[in-house]
């Protein structure tokens, strides 16, 4: 029989405890799941349920108090800070609620920055190509303050995909946008995700966004209380 392919993201018994005054506070408790390459997973739950904390642990931006995360078969606990950063650079693109664009850089320069840091040749041409794909080719020399919220998030999406990530991690990507703009931006993100074959890990409180994912992971008070697979169009 052919060997089974390993999950691209795997969490095993993840826990995160922080000190709150004199008492420990459990933010995540014994969370386990695995995602295969190309899956679209939504992490849902009420505010304070641990969604963003979980995403940070999966990305290696924070360390768990217990348990382990594997990315593409590599245990994050075996990597130092530089090693985790190199894994993120190779595997992950990020889209944040707050866009996280550098105000002193143009749209093109914001998309180019991680490409330059990765030593990619033709970073400028790659950035321009991605801005064209998100419909902002004519706005590439504009600074974030000259762009609407929806345009800024399109730049952020272009930046996330430009490095060819295998995993897209999105934290409330439409949270700062009005409903119509958010729907347009979400459609763009899902279309590019499908075209690029990227694994999507989406933190959202938006039921409509979650229903566009093939897997829904539900958190409640830091525990994984639901893991549902659904058919999507």
Tertiary shape: globular
Query: Structural class, from secondary structure content?
Result: alpha/beta
Quaternary class: single chain
Helix content: 25-40%
Percent of sequence in beta strands:
25-35%
Q: Summarize the main sheet.
A: 6 strands, mixed
Unreliable segments (pLDDT under 50, ≥5 consecutive)? Answer: none
Instruction: Give me the Rg, rounded.
Output: 18 Å
Strand order of the largest sheet: 6-7-8-3-9-10
Number of strands: 10
Tell me the number of helical segments per DSSP (H or I, 4 or more residues long). 7
First and last CA, distance? 31 Å
Mean pLDDT: 93
Order of helices and strands: EEEHEEHEHHHEHEHEE
Structure description:
The protein contains seven helices and ten strands. It has helices at 51-58, 81-91, 107-117, 123-133, 149-162, 179-196, 207-210, and strands at residues 9-20, 23-35, 40-44, 66-71, 74-75, 92-96, 167-171, 199-203, 215-220, 223-229. Strand 9 (215-220) and strand 10 form a beta hairpin.
Write the layout of secondary structure elements.
Blueprint: E1 9-20, E2 23-35, E3 40-44, H1 51-58, E4 66-71, E5 74-75, H2 81-91, E6 92-96, H3 107-117, H4 123-133, H5 149-162, E7 167-171, H6 179-196, E8 199-203, H7 207-210, E9 215-220, E10 223-229
Parallel strand pairs: 3-8, 3-9, 6-7, 7-8
Antiparallel strand pairs: 1-2, 1-4, 4-5, 9-10
Helix pairs in contact: 3-4, 3-5, 4-5, 5-6
